[in-house]
Amino acid sequence: MPKSTRPSPSTHSVSIRLAQEAERARRINETVARRKATDHEMNVDDQQTRPVNTAIAVSSTLKLVIMGHGFGELYKLRSIVTYALSPFEQRAFAGIISKGLPNVFKRTMDNIFYVLPPTLGAYLIYTSVERAHAQSLRKNPDDYKDEE
């Protein structure tokens, strides 16, 4: 059987993309030329209004098209599966009373021995220091009994 002269699908899609990008670049260049002509007619300084540099944008998109990928398709993730559930099918507060409150109690009891001793110690130190400070501010009545 003779070989087909028709290009392969990947080559064909690249040539279609290149043609589309060339058409897009042509339209952008026409728009820029039209704007330049309008600006020139209105005596607007070209230094103040510079047209969009289309050569950079077109060359970068052509590079992506030549590579056979578009933006967001530069690589393919493999062996990563993600699942999602519609927000309308989720029950955000399911089991909050029957499972949530006992879970809060259990977690509190698990951590109470890590939190309570330092807190209790800090409270006792604070109250004793405050009591000692208040006592140091008092006047001694024996110091003033000779003044009367």
UniProtKB/TrEMBL annotation:
Pfam families: UcrQ (PF02939). Keywords: Electron transport, Membrane, Mitochondrion, Mitochondrion inner membrane, Respiratory chain, Transmembrane, Transmembrane helix, Transport. It is found in: Mitochondrion inner membrane. It is a single-pass membrane protein. InterPro entries: Cyt_bc1_su8, Cyt_bc1_su8_sf. SUPFAM superfamilies: Ubiquinone-binding protein QP-C of cytochrome bc1 complex (Ubiquinol-cytochrome c reductase). One of its GO terms (biological process) is mitochondrial electron transport, ubiquinol to cytochrome c. The keyword Magnesium does not apply. The keyword Transmembrane applies. GO terms for cellular component: mitochondrial inner membrane; respiratory chain complex III. It comes from the Eukaryota. Component of the ubiquinol-cytochrome c oxidoreductase (cytochrome b-c1 complex, complex III, CIII), a multisubunit enzyme composed of 11 subunits. The complex is composed of 3 respiratory subunits cytochrome b, cytochrome c1 and Rieske protein UQCRFS1, 2 core protein subunits UQCRC1/QCR1 and UQCRC2/QCR2, and 6 low-molecular weight protein subunits UQCRH/QCR6, UQCRB/QCR7, UQCRQ/QCR8, UQCR10/QCR9, UQCR11/QCR10 and subunit 9, the cleavage product of Rieske protein UQCRFS1. PANTHER family: CYTOCHROME B-C1 COMPLEX SUBUNIT 8 (PTHR12119:SF2), UBIQUINOL-CYTOCHROME C REDUCTASE COMPLEX UBIQUINONE-BINDING PROTEIN QP-C (PTHR12119). Belongs to the UQCRQ/QCR8 family. Component of the ubiquinol-cytochrome c oxidoreductase, a multisubunit transmembrane complex that is part of the mitochondrial electron transport chain which drives oxidative phosphorylation. The complex plays an important role in the uptake of multiple carbon sources present in different host niches. This is Cytochrome b-c1 complex subunit 8. It comes from Aquatica leii. The lineage of its organism: Eukaryota, Metazoa, Ecdysozoa, Arthropoda, Hexapoda.
